[in-house]
Amino acid sequence: MKNVTFAEIVERIKADKHLGKEVPSFDPSNGNENAEYLFLLEAPGPKAVQTGRISFDNPDPSAREFGRELAVAGIDRDEIAIWNIVPWYLGNSAGTAIRAADGDDVREGMKYLPLVLEAMPNLKIIVLVGAAARRAHIFLSRLTAARIVSCHHPSMRVMNSNSKAAEENVELFRFLKATKM
Q: What angle do CA 31, 36, 38 make, to 5 degrees?
């Protein structure tokens, strides 16, 4: 049986959840299905909904910081896929503020992760970005032999509360690249 594509996964989520633009797509500039790294964040923010994609090119500080960290670590776009534990927008109807994912959101969103993993034949490393994403660690451990690690979320709140967060992320990303088998 043929694996589904990322585009088909997004369309399935939209149909299942009766949503539209609230489920942004994968960034076509990244490696996506051919990637070796899968970076999982919490949920798409307002800028991802506006642009229609999960991307470090989105016009928000967290996206820019995440892209900067990957670039400094030497991880190329064609090596990555970026997605969310909860793949739909959890914010207000005005699209200006996101709320934190709760346990029900995470459990519901994780239902789609097996499809994402199956679509990635070259997957070697899953990076859980932030506390909400770490809630999927045990679930993912039962689905894949890929290495699973975690890092700090690139939000300004995290970066401002931990002066070493960005440096620690870059060190981790460099280590992953150096030890990738």
A: 80
